[in-house]
Amino acid sequence: MGLRTRTKVIIGISTGVVVIAAAAVIAGPSIYANTVNGQAAAAPSLEATSSATLDAADADGTWTSTKTSYAGYRVHEVLQGNDVNVVGRTKDVEGTAEVDGGSLATATVTVQVAKISTPSPRATPTSGTPRWRRTSSRRRRSR
């Protein structure tokens, strides 16, 4: 006595669902890791804009963050054997730093953490360099 057609269809569909689910469980993390790593922004870095040297006292003054400043996080994790870097950033940052005598005297940085998001590659800042500008300077003391 053979199986009825309806039973064969149910067994076939069930087998297909199990095979697709197993493939998703096995290949899913690899696909996710490759997608996320492709979207991760480059780590911030600082580069000298000239080869000139700076006397520490020349940095005296109040420095504030600019519109291109950003803050965020970078998490490196291993997801089922695949390396994944996840990056979240926000440009909702305000900061000031006071330099006196070539040393940092005070600094305040405010970040709206609730606005940190994982950006798409098009929304990522093109430069990994935070920008600061001096808003006032102190007169150098004569020696």
Could you give the order of strands across the largest sheet? 5-4-1-6
Oligomer status: single chain
Number of strands: 6
Low-pLDDT sequence parts: 120-130, 137-143
Query: What's the N-to-C terminus distance?
Result: 108 Å
Q: Approximately how much helix is present in the residues?
A: 10-25%
Mean pLDDT: 76
| Secondary-structure class | alpha+beta
The string of secondary-structure elements, in order, is HEEEEEE
Q: What's the shape?
A: rod-shaped
Number of helices: 1
> What gyration radius follows from the Cα positions, in whole Å?
27 Å
Q: Could you describe the largest sheet, including whether it forms a barrel?
A: 4 strands, antiparallel
Strand residue content? 25-35%
Topology overview:
Blueprint: H1 5-39, E1 61-65, E2 71-79, E3 82-90, E4 93-100, E5 103-111, E6 132-136
Antiparallel strand pairs: 1-4, 1-6, 2-3, 4-5
Quick rundown:
The chain is α+β, with helices and mostly antiparallel strands. 24% of the residues lie in helices and 31% in strands. The protein has one helix at 5-39; strands spanning 61-65, 71-79, 82-90, 93-100, 103-111, 132-136.
Explain what this protein looks like in three dimensions.
- With about 140 residues, the chain is of the alpha+beta class.
- It contains one helix and six strands; from the N terminus they run αββββββ.
- Strands 5-4-1-6 form a four-stranded antiparallel beta sheet, with no helix packed on it. Strands 2-3 form a two-stranded antiparallel ribbon.
- The longest helix is centred in the N-terminal third of the chain and has 35 residues.
- It is rod-shaped, with a radius of gyration of 27 Å.
- The C terminus is likely disordered.
